[in-house]
Write a structure and sequence with these properties.
The longest helix has 38 residues. 55% of the residues are buried. The two termini are 22 Å apart. Helix 3 runs parallel beside helix 5 and helix 9 runs antiparallel to helix 10. The protein is built from 18 helices and no strands. It folds into two domains: 405 residues, MFS general substrate transporter like domains (Growth Hormone, Chain: A); 56 residues. By secondary structure, it is mainly α.
Length: 501
Amino acid sequence: MTAPRPGERDEAGEGPDPHRWWALVVIALAQLMVVLDATIVTIALPSAQRELHISSGNRQWVITAYTLAFGGLLLLGGRVADFVGRKRTFVIGLCGFAVASGVGGAAQSSGMLFGARALQGVFAALLAPSALSLLSTTFQDPSERAKAFGVFSALAGSGAAIGLMAGGLLTDFLSWRWCLYVNIPIAIGTVAGALTLLHDRPGHEEARLDIPGVVLGCGGLVAIVYGFSEAQPRGWTSPFVLVLLAVGLAMLVFFVRWQTKAPHPLLPPHIIRERNRAGSFLAIVMATIGLFGLFLFLTFYMQTILGYSPLRTGLAFLPIAGAIVVGSTQISARLLPRTAPRNLVVPGMILAAGGLIILTQLTVEAAYVTHLLPAMLLLGLGIGLTFMPVMATATAGVAPWDAGVTSATVNTSQQVGGSIGTSLLNTIATSTASDYVRTHLRDPAQRTAVERAGVVHGYATAIWWAVVIMLIGAVVAGVLISGRGPQQPARREGRVPEPVR
């Protein structure tokens, strides 16, 4: 069944929500808060480490505690949104996220900060899929849907860069604690808007939760994300890392097998079996690997090699955020109703790969305007062209009772891609840098210069790997994602019976 045009009645006899564009503002603010919180504390981390006396070995938990809980519990959060209602889950997630942010900002010890960050991740796992599923069900007309997803995707893609900018500003002018406190007023305003503007169908409270699926799926994701996070400080050959990855992979294999016979599957197989959605999920993973790896390298490159302050580093990311917004809202959103998703995703990933190739030419004295800026603009435009159509395609044609878990799978793809990008590319960079120093250090008096050159050489080598991954993603998108024109989002998927109310 085709979606109603603007002003028409939908299949339930209800017209389009007259407040839907204000609802988009509410949903977008929540998404921005969740995404930027993955990076906003990155620049503030040295200040927090000094004040709370966090050891160098444990400082990564400020980041890992959030991503571990967030990435590991997303599937469960998506299913909770389907069962109890997306709006209700959205509001609970916002309130919990605000409380956890307040606790983290007031932290007096490392353990208190780590716990608050983990709690943020738990509520983010409720908030993110409910936000995306609310967007998916609020906008059904293809033209309006493209515009809405353009805004949402722009924030999803640029949120990490915005987080770095906000972290630099808040740390330099206020305190690292405000990198957490800032979420409180945002959450309060968003809750007020959600209660006033958002509308949703009741959840399916009588449906049963797939407990074995929760244990296998969420447990496997936690092990995988944790394993990738630990690969950065411990190395890929660490027995601990290898065991985590093996256990996580095994649990996910059993999870997939169980979902084919579970009476109430946590992730219904038809969601990932559909070709367009599968291609979109894979494209998101591969694009995010390159994007998050780049943020990590450029943050350290600008501060340790070029000598930028935290504030200057944050502001230096402004062009990539702007380019992502332009690519998502001004290019993809305008073209998607008229062309096939593949015609945007493939050129977008190739363009992003071109930006990464420029970064492989970095030197210890590279100029921002001639080296970094062109690469950021190309990468940002490419990511903007990629994220918007794959997010819209991944959530199109999904039955309302599966919108939450489908949206959770989109977010899970981003989290897994970010974890892989951060750990895999960082491991490649550090090992390559060590080899460079070992083979090029002839005069001990030149150690500093050689080490700086080795660090840049390591970044360049890792970015070449990111280029390869991005181009593989373009091939995957070209093969799997539809080459036909834009599809009308279905109101129901006839192959899957609606749960009994």
